[in-house]
Amino acid sequence: MRRKPGRRVHAVTRVALVTGAARGIGAATVRALIAQGWEVLAVDRAKDDPALPYPLGTESELSTVATHTFVADVRDPGALAAAVAEAESRWGGLDAAIAAAGVIAGGVPTWEVTPEQEQAVLDVNLGGVLNLARVAVPALLRRPEPRSGRFLAVASAAATRGLPMLAAYCAAKAGVTGLVRALAAELGDTGVTANAVSPGSTDTPILAESARLYDLAGPADFAAQQPVRRLLAPAEVADVLAFLAGRGSSGMTGAVVPVDGGMAL
């Protein structure tokens, strides 16, 4: 079809909400989306958790990631609902919701992990994804047809590998993969899809804490378990999430994409 002279075709701005956005894979995903022209609401708890023995992302870190930020704990459905409402109010709708918030704890046999630490791992890593789906999927469905909404989550190679002294983390990440598959089936032909990425050893604060829990010299010690013989950069995982958020992934739903340097081989 020939365009009329002088007529301009304007691209519609896509809108995303990303949790766990202060640092790590979440922060890298925010940056990747912004670089591709998305409007992004970067969401994070932005303070430490007394149940966990290592520092979490800060409000200062969050402020360096994006212009538009929102402080919310993924364990609080009301706070996440407010974040979704903020995105819809500011930009008129929501096209992608990306659950990247995560924490880790363990370092001792399962039966010796404190109940507080175990609950934090389950509630953030799995409960936080469920909570985001509860408030974000209805917003994705509020976009008029034909839709191209995306619900995405960060799982882990730990979803399929039994990692000693990290049982709650493994259980939570396995739950994320099951949730994404079920959600994909429920969304069916709505135009909204659900997918996940499954990172291997990635150079993030969670990996640094994992090294401490295993009494290793540092996170670089994990590189040998991946065929690529190096740690992944958060941006490498973020680039896959950005692809999955885009229209080019329209044929994918219920997928768990390994971004693990071959760790799952």
TrEMBL record:
InterPro entries: KR_dom, NAD(P)-bd_dom_sf, Sc_DH/Rdtase_CS, SDR_fam, SDR_subfam_2. It comes from the Bacteria. PROSITE patterns: ADH_SHORT. Residues 14-200 form the Ketoreductase domain. Transmembrane segments: none annotated. CDD domains: SDR_c. Keywords: NAD, Oxidoreductase. Gene3D superfamilies: NAD(P)-binding Rossmann-like Domain (3.40.50.720). Belongs to the short-chain dehydrogenases/reductases (SDR) family. This is SDR family oxidoreductase. It comes from Actinophytocola gossypii. The lineage of its organism: Bacteria, Bacillati, Actinomycetota, Actinomycetes, Pseudonocardiales.
